[in-house]
Amino acid sequence: MFDRIKEDINSVYSRDPAARNFLDVLTTYPGLHAIWIYRLSHKLWIRKWFWFAKVISTLARFATGIEIHPGATIGRRFFIDHGLGVVIGETAEIGNDVTLYHGVTLGGTSWDGGKRHPTLEDNVVIGAGAKLLGPITIAKNARVGSNAVVIRNVAAEATVIGIPARIVSRKRHTNKFDAYSTRNTERDPVRNALDMVVEHVQAIDEKIKVLSECMDEDVKKCCDDLPKLDLHELHDVLGSYQEDIDNMTFTDAEEDK
Fold this sequence. Notes:
This protein is an alpha/beta fold.
């Protein structure tokens, strides 16, 4: 038991730069306290002492602000940073070296019995406020950005953001731990799609202009009456939608390197 506690504490140092020393982590990290109490309640649960298991789980929720159902299955070196508002459902399955931030929900979408909560494979990172709903699978090394709502499976190595969650990267670009599971260089896929539409419209406009030069005056006049696309105004609209990439150009739609 003490080896597992020591392993949990040591695993924090690579994922939280605020961790100062062993005593600090041991006494002031509610995420670890919730996990340790969960292990006790889980042992009671698998022995079919359901009431006692849920009482202990309820006490842990009052003490830490983290709700982990004793029926959930959790692997080694699981870390909940900050922790307040985390909810993990009964049939949730969590692999090794998984990280959750505050406000994360691993919830169900059905009142039917059986498997109804998410499965998180090894090395998954879930950003603050994310909601993962239903019996979906988040594969190894995947990342879910803060406040995302995930209702479909996420492939290994992929990064998803948004509501509903959409893939912004299909491969992790670094082995470095990514706090909150997102970086400011990641572009929203809706923004990328709009960029491509704008580029396509611009290309069509150029083609029409060239063709009109070969036609008579009536056709030229018709082409002159076409509405103009105000790229600056469109850029402002998109910038308000995603301010952190406001200085990127429309043509800069290539993948993050």
